[in-house]
């Protein structure tokens, strides 16, 4: 309560008669609290109607003794409001679940223990046994198994394993749950008889036993194995997929890099517009509600008059700066003899030829020109403008069919069968439309090809760790078959003056356990959007041949 105000004048000494005839002080008045039920109320006329729990009216005034410290603490207005709400509507608290982890989840993500937020994690004994079998080797699965074992050892150290181990005591503040181990035998009668010698079936027995022991707790099995989840559901066990590595749930929600502006764009965003020219480029400074949804280096276009094809340069809340782009569809702006055949290819060439754009991702189906555009821009900036001193091409070596066996030779000779697309595009870039030179096989053509090949290096991803590329044009082909960790390993190899181009088709993923939502290509597209030195474009229109276009649609 606030302190009384300071006296404005000095006090006076009263006589005995003045003290005797002075009015008696009334005791302080107090509001009736829910805990004070014995207080004597003062009747008032008229009597107000009783207040509802959500609409609290004025409390009756009571005569009481001088106030004392209440038994219950005084509630704030916010707490009173919540308390009143709980009288009429039960507020369901955050439901804390217990997730039983399958081995493949731990092998998929070594840090998955700390990504379940406030929920608890349970690890069966059979999972620890399987981790022990997977820890040997140099593969990513073996590395994850060893890392999980290190995490578990650090968590168990000096902790009571019987009471549960807090997952955040190692510094992972996002993990607010506890870790539990199987410390006793858990057996239960399943509705369907299944063999007990299989590790997956042993995990199902453990989950079913936990459900019987804790019927009031929500228990779910987390597994990356689809068949495991199907077996669990047939037994009435709730299951979930480990989706923390999924960037998106639907590939249609992936950032495309270009958007069509609404028809009323100029009416809603053209007020107080500023425009200027600099180095042959026209800039527009607009403001409106759509500006907050734009990303830097995103392409925008309108099909209504007046038409606009521009690139977003700056975004600031409800303001944005747009800049016109170079028309690479015109022959005077050709890139190593290649011109853009559609609007999306024009967008891609603007990104590839921009030296300020360090990272470019190209997404599209087969035949859209991803490799051709990337290679043409790389040759132009390496041999003509000499912005880069070398072209490095790599790709994920995942076969479509069965392996053909050991490949002899050096690193580049082993990678040669995987670089058929490189040879095909080099032939297109070098020959152009002059087919007679292909028949003549003259010395000039061979000498030119030798110069081009001397600036192109084909490298394997297996030997990328620890390298640093300086002033290189790095092309990562078939990037949809890479995991997020592999993609991070490659992108972090970039040194000063290096440009990285990632391209692929997420509809053609050949790597097991990878989906459109968890692919490394999807991962970098989502993480790099909006960064001022990166760009992305999705190519939809095929330019290979009418046969290939029809096959993509019909097959």
TrEMBL record:
Q: Which family does it belong to?
A: In the N-terminal section; belongs to the PINc/VapC protein family.
Q: What is the lineage of its organism?
A: Bacteria, Pseudomonadati, Pseudomonadota, Betaproteobacteria, Burkholderiales
Keyword ATP-binding listed: yes
**InterPro entries for the chain:** P-loop_NTPase, PhoH, PhoH2-like, PIN-like_dom_sf, PIN_dom
State the name under which the record lists this protein.
PhoH family protein
Can you supply one Gene Ontology CC term for this chain's record? cytosol
Q: Which UniProt keywords apply?
A: ATP-binding, Nucleotide-binding
Map out region (Disordered) in residue numbers.
Answer: 1-88
What residue stretches are annotated with the PIN domain? 97-230
Which species? Paenalcaligenes hominis
Q: Which GO terms describe its molecular function?
A: ATP binding
SMART domains given in the database record: PINc
